[in-house]
Fold this sequence. Notes:
By secondary structure, the protein is of the alpha+beta class. It has one domain. Helices cover about 25% and strands about 20% of the residues.
Amino acid sequence: MRRVLRVMCTTAVLATAGCGGSNDSSDAPIGAVDAAKPAPTGEATAEQVAAEMRGNVKCPAKASSARPANAPVDDVVGARPGMTWNEAATFVMCDHPLMVVTENTARNYRIDTRGLKLRQGFDGEFAKARVVKTSRDYLREMSEEAARRSGNAVEVRLQPGQSRFYVSTMGLPGQEQVISVAREELYAEGKQPTVESITQALIAKYGQPSESNDTGSLVQIWWEYDPAGNKVQQQQCRISAGPDAATSLSTACGITVAAYVQASRTNPGLAHSLAVTSQNGAWGYELLRRTEEALKSADAAKKAKELEDASKNAEAPKL
């Protein structure tokens, strides 16, 4: 029977933790909080903040293992399903010198973690300058935020020339692997590629699509494969592209890639932005199942040990 699992997605909230790491997955987790190290303070440029947060990341990133021969192309600028947390984070940061990675704790899969904290994903965004704010600055920002909410203003997550990521992960602590990778890029005016050139570049990389749709203002393309790597055309395997899209995993779907090319409002032949998402549905579903089973077994063993210890050490009840 086909099984489908969905992830609950909420607005991403970036942590302010520093990070460091390399391609070696045995290093301290990238994006983890170093409780022993005080958070940086004082004014700092975006470049200085990026240097603090990126640590000893080495670019260009190198994959620890090659994609299997004849397997569908499944990477987004190098990061792909199956990679470790640190390996994918390194590829993400190597996308741009200002790109930094922070754990996202607001988007979680619906599984019983048995009270254990699992790292279920991270964001990649451009570092921002650190500004020392006064109480007046905070009051002004609160007022502006309230005005935006009341007016249902759309939050602008990217500036022209920037990109951002969301990478979904799962696994026991220290063993997290990537389920999906999503990237969005907003093109700067005067440097916008044509919609046609992006479309052809996508086909050159991922091959002939399973499905596509062109509304004139938005080009949507999907590459869909079953778990055996055979190209399919299935509505249930069609995913949305972009870091804010929810994740839906199905045992009937293998690698699935989606790309959206948004056209410029002033010239529909030019691209305004590009969003690409890659995921492995059946593999991700199995990873979630294995993780939940491991947590269940560990919790049962812990409770059994507590009962054993209680039988040896507990005081007899006074009756």
